[in-house]
């Protein structure tokens, strides 16, 4: 891989017509990856920290962009419930079959709803929410479109954004290439994972894009397993 340049190719999972066992196995695999490599934990810690600072305990609406099979929202909802934080959740994904999978695997979770929408479409409208989260998704935007996206959502009463993303690194690429052989994940997840690392932003690139998106109050922290958590507070 070339660490200096973001790769500009699609993953197999980007095919919004994908369905069947191949899709379901890959969505299950992504849930496994999110659990093993800390995405669930890091995302939840960031949400809990924000809720604690703002003293939020009820009527919080959290939207997950690119929710896939819904594993992050299921984990997050359980953790917040244990902390006596009452929240409602909306997961959005562009593949109708992914949303079907998410609904099927989210039983008795009346606080979680799932919607089908093409997030990358210029006509996409974000539901009003307190916290907007996204994991391993924003690299689907090019730099300018992500900056424009941040500008677009600022009038929507979104108070806080949390991006949980990998950062581009040749070490991450080669370690995942080795580790994926040992993990109980699908072949598509293995191949797409390597592509995703090459498509990812560096910390410096993401900082520049956030500033271009007219967001001044933000922090990006590097975490274990080549992850970065970007937290953005939007002007009210």
From TrEMBL:
GO MF, one annotated term: methyltransferase activity
Keywords: Methyltransferase, Transferase
One Pfam assignment: Methyltransf_25
Keyword Methyltransferase attributed: yes
Entries under InterPro entries matching the protein: Methyltransf_25 (IPR041698), SAM-dependent_MTases_sf (IPR029063)
Domain Methyltransferase span(s) in chain numbering: 62-153
Biological process according to GO: methylation
Stated name of the protein: Methyltransferase domain-containing protein
Annotated source species: Aquimarina spongiae
């Amino acid at each position: 891989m070339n660490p200096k340049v973001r790769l500009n190719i699609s993953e197999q999972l980007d095919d919004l017509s994908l369905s069947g066992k191949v899709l379901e196995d890959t969505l299950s695999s992504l849930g496994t990856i999110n659990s093993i490599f800390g995405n669930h934990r890091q995302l939840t810690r960031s949400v809990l920290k924000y809720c604690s600072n703002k003293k939020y305990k009820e009527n919080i609406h959290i939207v997950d962009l690119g929710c896939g099979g819904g594993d992050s929202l299921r984990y997050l909802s359980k953790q917040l419930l244990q902390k006596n934080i009452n929240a409602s959740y909306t997961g959005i994904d562009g593949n109708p079959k992914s949303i079907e999978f998410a609904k099927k695997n989210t039983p008795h979770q009346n606080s979680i709803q799932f919607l089908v929408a093409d997030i990358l479409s210029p006509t996409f409208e974000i539901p009003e929410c307190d916290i907007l989260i996204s994991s391993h998704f924003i690299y689907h935007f090019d730099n300018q479109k992500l900056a424009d996206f941040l500008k677009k959502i600022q009038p929507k009463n979104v108070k806080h954004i949390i991006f949980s993303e990998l950062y581009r690194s040749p070490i991450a690429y080669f370690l995942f290439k080795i580790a994926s052989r040992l993990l109980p994940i699908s072949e598509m997840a293995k191949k797409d994972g390597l592509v995703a690392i090459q498509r990812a932003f560096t910390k410096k690139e993401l900082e520049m894009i956030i500033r271009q998106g007219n967001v001044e109050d933000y922090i990006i922290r590097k975490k274990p397993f080549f992850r970065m958590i970007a937290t953005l507070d939007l002007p009210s």
